[in-house]
Design a protein that fits this description.
Elements (H helix, E strand, L loop, with lengths): L9 H10 L10 H13 L3 E4 L5 E5 L11 E6 L21 E4 L2 E4 L6 H15 L8 E6 L7 H4 L10 E4 L7 E6 L1 E10 L2 E2 L5 E9 L17 H16 L2 E7 L10 E8 L3 H18 L8 E6 L6 E2 L1 H13 L3 E5 L7 E13 L2 E10 L2 H17 L3 E8 L9 H14 L4 E5 L5 H7 L4 E4 L4 E2 L7 E3 H16 L5
Parallel strand pairs: 3-6, 3-7, 7-21, 8-20
Antiparallel strand pairs: 1-2, 2-6, 4-5, 5-23, 9-18, 9-19, 10-15, 11-13, 11-14, 12-13, 12-17, 16-17, 17-18, 22-23
């Protein structure tokens, strides 16, 4: 064990450090699934792996607590695989290099995996403990939360007998979450002809980097730059005023992360090169000025490139540029019911060309179903006008707050008794699994909480050390005070 095992609570950090030695990117969770099954069996506890890979470990109540309601401790096994461009990291093979940085734990140039490794580590610590008071426990470890909610969507009814769900996937200690946004993916395709490069052209690579990125729900109100929007704003100017032709575009790689980088291969008439370079120099100043309060220095570099074999045909290029430039992005509406909460947003996550097809992907979120539908129609209208094919999929429901929730009342009292203040009641503009799980198990009384995590889904992800201790103590006190059946 490394330096993390010296932190409090030791048993939780030891498990977290172990988790970070096991590759677990979304869709590639085979190793962590096997490890969790092995862990449950090693404790002599009933351990189940369902058809899609969810793992369930059941632990009986401690003596005298058999009459308490059964608690489902829940978190997801996968993590978002994001690394800085100068970091060589294979998320399917390499361990996460986590370390202590002052009051925080972070990772060397990659996502940390605190989202949602903290929940997994906490549940493991409870399962193995012999000195914790609790009623019956069912630990539910779901797969593929970050890339499709596959585990939650395919959990079968009846396999769990619990009454209360404690989801540990929230990211602000001292807050209790009672609702979340629903979401849906927009999958957009442009088909294009591959045409020859005209004579008299010079080729360049345009690269945008230095953006912070982040979680496309939680961090969307921070107003951070979107590399795809920044790139296509430049391409629009370049195409309109300097004869730029587009050969290839690669922007973003995860639907639920604000895109941090984008790379385009372009050609431009030799006589227009100086004008385009001046345009870019002016544009770099504009972008950094506009986003100065939300970003550090944004880098937009245009460097000479080998001549591409083919270009995207001009008609499709123009439609693509105008559609991406005009596509809604960011916060669409704030909630009228809860101050500071985003109601509806969209993230223009991915724009990638390959072999005659440009794929554009957006993740739309809203706590209001009709608003989400309206946003779908808006995006569909923009891209269908440009001749693209638009499909929607991967929809998941929101979680409607229940302010009369018994477990909410219990946890408020527990927190107040221990720390002398009542935790904030919140809803989150992100896709917690509670909405999906609650549809399968409608009897569950649900709450979500967790330690303080900043910048999830980006290489700047970090978890606050002191908050992890409070989260752990809060969990133990809550288990101790679970109501009777």
């Amino acid at each position: 064990m490394g330096e993390l095992s010296k932190l409090y609570p030791e048993r939780l950090w030891v498990h977290f450090e172990t988790l970070n030695s096991i590759p677990r990117p979304s869709k590639k969770e085979e190793k962590i699934i096997a490890e969790m099954v092995k862990f449950g069996q090693s404790l002599g506890l009933e351990t189940i792996q369902d058809e899609v890979g969810n793992v369930i470990i059941k632990k009986p109540a401690t003596p005298g607590m058999e009459d308490r309601k059964t608690v489902v401790l829940q978190g997801h096994l996968d993590m978002v695989p994001q690394a800085n461009s100068d970091v060589n990291h294979d998320f399917e093979k390499d361990p996460i290099q986590s370390y202590v940085d002052g009051e925080w734990v972070t990772a060397k140039g990659t996502t940390l995996g605190a989202d949602n490794g903290m929940a997994i580590a906490a549940a493991m610590a409870v399962l193995e403990a012999k000195d914790i008071v609790h009623g019956p426990i069912e630990a539910l470890f779901t797969i593929d939360e970050e890339a499709g909610m596959t585990g939650a969507n395919n959990l079968k009814p009846g396999i769990l007998k619990g009454d209360i769900l404690l989801n540990m996937d929230s990211e602000d200690e001292g807050e209790l979450y009672v609702g979340c946004a629903g979401g849906i993916d927009a999958n957009i395709k442009f088909t294009y002809k591959q045409v020859d490069v005209p004579a008299g052209m010079e080729a360049f690579t345009v690269k945008i980097s230095g953006l912070k990125g982040g979680h496309s729900g939680i961090d969307i109100p921070l107003g951070r730059g979107n590399s795809n929007k920044i790139m296509f704003r430049f391409l629009r100017c370049g195409a309109k005023n300097h004869g730029v032709r587009l050969a290839e575009i690669q922007g973003g790689d995860l639907r639920n992360a604000i895109p941090r980088e984008a790379v385009a291969t372009i050609v431009v008439p030799k006589n227009n090169v100086d004008g385009l370079k001046k345009c870019l120099a002016d544009y770099v100043k504009i972008v950094n000025s506009e986003l100065s309060s939300a970003e550090n220095e944004i880098k937009i570099v245009m460097s000479s490139s080998s001549m591409p074999a083919k270009l995207i045909d001009e008609e499709t290029q123009n439609k693509l540029i105008k559609a991406v430039y005009g596509c809604p992005n960011g916060v669409i509406r704030m909630s009228n019911d809860m101050e500071g909460l985003v109601e509806t947003s969209t993230n223009l996550a991915i724009v990638k060309s390959n072999n005659g097809v440009v794929d554009v992907k957006c993740l739309l979120r809203s706590s209001v179903d009709t608003a989400k539908e309206d946003l779908c129609n808006m995006i569909e209208s923009v891209f269908e006008l440009a001749g693209a094919k638009v499909e929607f999929g991967g929809a998941y429901p929101g979680w409607k707050p229940n302010m009369k929730s018994p477990i909410l009342k219990t946890m408020q009292e527990v927190y107040n008794n221990k720390w002398g203040k009542i935790p904030k009641i919140m809803a989150i503009h992100a896709g917690l699994e509670c909405g999906i799980l609650g549809a399968t198990y409608p009897n569950w009384d649900m709450i979500s909480f967790g330690p303080t995590i900043r910048y999830p889904h980006s290489p700047d992800e970090k978890v606050h050390i002191e908050s992890v201790g409070k989260f752990w103590e809060f969990l133990l006190e809550t288990l101790k005070h679970i109501p009777k059946k």
